[in-house]
Design brief:
The protein is α/β, with parallel strands linked by helices and about 525 residues long. The chain has 15 helices and 21 strands.
Amino acid sequence: MLRLRNHLLSATTAILMASPIANQAKATEPAVRSNYEHVLLISVDGMHAIDLANWVQNHPTSNFAKLANTGVVYSNAFTTAPSDSYPGMIAQVTGATPKTSGLFYDDSYDRTVYPSKAFYTSQNLPDPGCTGPKGAELTNWEELDRTFDFATGLVADVTGGGKLGEVLTQMDPDHMQRRLIDGECRPVYPHQYIRTNTIFEVIKEAGGVTAWSDKHPAYEVLSGPSGKGIDDLFAPEINSQIFLPGAPKGVDNTTSFAAVRAYDTLKVNAVVNWIDGLNSTASAHPGVPAIFGMNFQAVSVGQKLAKAGYGDDPSLTGGYLNSNATPGNALTLQFQFVDAALGRFVQELIRQGLNSSTLIIVSAKHGQSPIDPKDRVAQSDAPFQSTPGFGKKGFEICDDEALIWLEPDLQQANYDAAKAYLQANAAKLHIQQLLDRTSLTPLYGDPFENSRVPDFIAVTDHGVICTSGTKLAEHGGFSDDDRNVLLLLSAPEIKPTIVETLTSTTQIAPTILTALGLDPKRLKGVRKEDTEVLGK
């Protein structure tokens, strides 16, 4: 029986883990061979290392258990800090933290760009184009979709207004932030923000077919700076009108346990198509990709959603029951769904004769905090917007920690006053530790010089989430519940192993290239951050 321990780090160590080269497991012996033909990468958003341990122990015949029985399990694997989906996924395909990739959150800020055209038109304001002071929120989430409604914040349907499998048709350039380039005010696509190449680019350059499925068209960022790394990006929009027949208007797929499973099934079907050598929509036959996979949202919604939604049994409640991460009835259903999908993938690989030539990697972009429902503390993020220097063009994002960018023109003159305000209100805002310019610079870069680095990161007390609703948990922070995620490598010939050494999900990227017989140092992030291949 597989038994794992949930090793908890101190808050100080967790913060140091944000450093790109801190405490990685050194690969004295690579965990995988280097002649696989395919890698199937799976991200189960929200799934902790302890979730895997509990599931395998309590379900010894499950598909997770079968994968672990021919795999290497990393019980002490940590995702990025901040632990948001965007940097968490980018880390897995670049080998880099935000210090090198340049992206801290899907909803973040850049001091060098101008707001989108839609930013003004949605407020019936004249569009000044790329004039005036720089600095704008980066909306690399559903706001980029063609059918995003700025009044309701909802997308009409999963296509985002385009054609699934053709991601550029799903995004509206008028919804993108802009830069002045050669005298012309031009939209900035997601891939133009990332500062390091991705495994998709490296593998495609080597002649491999590449494919991926994720929750927003904005994950076009994973194509890398070239914008051409992913041959087939299947990106149904999760924050769209609920994906169940007869559902009420104005609610999205994250409001129902059943709806998010139906939504994830679209991506599961795309993965099966890829295993069969088809494209995501089964409209062409390009061959089985060298790298392919998907992101699951079912577990994340099961952790965060408090009560049953449309299409759910009314008796279902979300989240965990206790500090041991015992899942409640709704979350159990979500784990069962993901487990069944993994079994479907394996059976299809076997049916196609690809099982022995495919390495399966299962991890998570982030965890979810708090696990123990008794630790939950809800607060408003509004006081962060009263920080001196925030002005009209400042920005903050708070899920379970706060990232704060001052208005660029007010930044330096107001910096000390802003710091003093946040320190004075630390108790009210549950700030455990305030990361300022002095502490942020070695971790990510100087906010006075780097256009993306927040001016402050307020690391909050464990269990704090910024919400006025019933949400049970969130992510984005530095805690172990946020960051200690599952990480499992599996293939038929691998002997079951548990690695307890401190490990980073950035190590997934060089491991994938190694498994495919490619040089990991072709990744800029690997070179800059000295990212190791996963060992055993």
